[in-house]
TrEMBL record:
This is dihydrouracil dehydrogenase (NAD(+)). Residues 126-396 form the FAD/NAD(P)-binding domain. Signal peptide: none annotated. Keywords: Oxidoreductase. It comes from Enterobacter lignolyticus (strain SCF1). PANTHER family: DIHYDROPYRIMIDINE DEHYDROGENASE [NADP(+)]. It is an enzyme of class 1 (oxidoreductase). Involved in pyrimidine base degradation. Catalyzes physiologically the reduction of uracil to 5,6-dihydrouracil (DHU) by using NADH as a specific cosubstrate. It also catalyzes the reverse reaction and the reduction of thymine to 5,6-dihydrothymine (DHT). The keyword Oxidoreductase applies. Heterotetramer of 2 PreA and 2 PreT subunits. Its EC number is 1.3.1.1. GO terms for molecular function: dihydropyrimidine dehydrogenase (NAD+) activity; iron-sulfur cluster binding.
């Protein structure tokens, strides 16, 4: 991989000719398996057909009808597990590069200043959303289109959730996220930042003012491992990524780093460290390669940047900055030392502000997105299911529809 910077998007965009060439590889399947495998129903079968016929505007309309974060998903979806998995073209050579085509169309939409979303009617009453990550943002668009006046309360200084300070700039430029959010604000959605429910304002206040409240607070706290409590220089992965993102990559990096974990977050930390100049980056995962949790793209990027990835080892002892690992299946042990240790072992929700809702092991219990409190709904990472952006979009959209059905029924009683 040639010299790259933290701020440069690593995967290049398609030109119009390359996009049409890629779209022309599509076999135009009846009941397209790609469309059936997209959780957010972004309908790649349909938008690829539009690209093929040079109808880029129609392609953008198809994407936006179903996915308010189409430009983000185009950059971060683990497509090999989703839309591209069932692509019929795989039987001939390789699957269509759906994500890059989606990126081409949404870039075209932005470059030509298309305005697909129109301001909402706001004649159905007020709904509050807590958390401006992808689930809350998508829900706000669906509710707005259904006629509700929507306010999102966000504790941070800027909206976006993990899209803002989790996923690094070289995979998702902040400008792409800013444009997605600007489109949503232009529809009339009100986003109030610096508003943490539980401190700045209470859930009871929201319930008194709004017809329904949707919780999309995500898994905002990084987990640690007790084994590392007394280790030398240890940091939680999402704290490191936030620190790097808020400083635009202007942070001091150690000469060597050891990352514990093998998911997308671990790969993001590893690639970020490499791009910022850390000489030796080693990532140790408990999963073996056949069941590696990181997406193919993330894994390939980290490897291309020179990260050493060791699979199938779990930490058993820590002394200062030395960690001993044992193989999960075989008798082998391994001791590694590094200037800085970063733990990428998962995240948890902070639900202390919502003591009355039933939650178990990091998950809010819901029935059709409704919690045990009938005016309180939940979506995104805090409910059961996949923890990806495209799933947050799906659940945000479906939760908004569920709120609408509930409020319509409440009106007709
Ligand atoms: C480093 C990293 C890399 C990732 N990479 C990928 C990837 O490549 N592909 C992919 O599909 N997924 C990826 N994910 C997962 C993806 O980002 C999440 O699944 C998704 O962001 C979940 O969306 P959400 O809206 O449920 O929550 P979040 O994105 O967590 O947003 C929740 C929002 O709620 C706010 N909030 C929390 N509590 C309160 C409160 N009390 N009051 C007001 N606001 C509050 C938070 O500040 C935040 O803005 C990654 C995650 C991380 C951390
Ligand atoms: S939203 Fe994601 S999963 Fe769906 S078609 Fe687009 S890239 Fe594929």
């Amino acid at each position: 991989m040639s010299q790259k910077n933290y701020q440069d998007e690593l995967i290049p965009a398609f030109t119009p000719l390359l996009a049409i060439k890629e779209a022309s590889r599509c076999l135009l399947c009846h009941d397209a398996p790609c469309s059936q495998s997209c959780p957010a129903q972004t309908d790649p079968g349909k938008f690829i057909r539009s690209i093929y016929f040079r109808n880029f505007k129609g392609a953008a309309e198809t994407i936006r009808e179903n996915n308010a974060l189409g430009a983000v998903c185009a950059r971060v979806c683990p497509t090999e597990k989703l839309c591209q998995r069932g692509c019929t073209r795989s039987g001939i050579d390789k699957p269509i590069d759906i994500a890059r085509l989606q990126r081409f169309v949404t870039d075209f939409e932005q470059q030509t200043a298309m305005r697909i979303y129109q301001p909402g009617r706001k004649d159905k009453g007020k709904v509050a959303i807590v958390g401006a990550g992808p689930a809350g943002l998508q829900a706000s668009v669906t509710l707005c289109n259904l006629g509700y006046e929507v306010t999102i309360f966000e504790k941070e200084a800027q909206p976006g959730g993990w899209l803002r300070h989790g996923i690094p700039e070289f995979r998702l430029p902040q400008s792409v996220l800013d444009h997605e959010i600007a489109r949503i604000i232009a529809m009339g959605v009100n986003i109030q930042c610096h508003s943490e429910v539980g401190t700045t304002l209470t859930l009871a206040q929201l319930k008194a003012e709004y017809r329904a409240v949707l919780l999309t607070v995500g898994l905002s706290q990084g987990l640690t491992l007790p084994l590392f409590n007394d280790a030398g220089s240890v940091e939680i992965a999402v704290d490191f990524l936030q620190r790097a993102s808020k400083a635009n990559g202007n942070i001091a990096v150690p000469q060597s780093a050891l990352i514990v974990g093998g998911g997308d977050v671990a790969m993001d930390v590893a690639s970020t460290l490499k791009l910022l100049g850390c000489e030796s980056v080693t990532c140790v995962a408990r999963e073996e390669l056949a069941a590696f949790p990181a997406s193919e793209k993330e894994f390939a990027t980290a490897q291309a940047l020179g990260v050493s990835i060791i699979d199938g080892f779990t930490p058993i002892a820590v002394t200062g900055n030395k960690v001993t690992f044992r193989h999960v299946r075989l008798p082998g042990e391994l001791t590694l030392a590094a200037g800085h240790i970063i733990l990428a072992v998962g995240q948890r929700a902070g639900l202390e502000a919502f003591p009355d809702i039933t939650s178990q092991r990091n998950t809010v219990e819901t029935q059709h997105y409704q919690t045990t409190d009938p005016v309180l709904f939940a979506a995104g990472d805090i409910i059961q299911g996949d923890k990806t952006v495209v799933y947050a979009v799906k659940t945000g959209k479906e939760a908004a529809q569920s709120i609408h059905h509930y409020l319509e029924e409440a009106c007709s009683c």
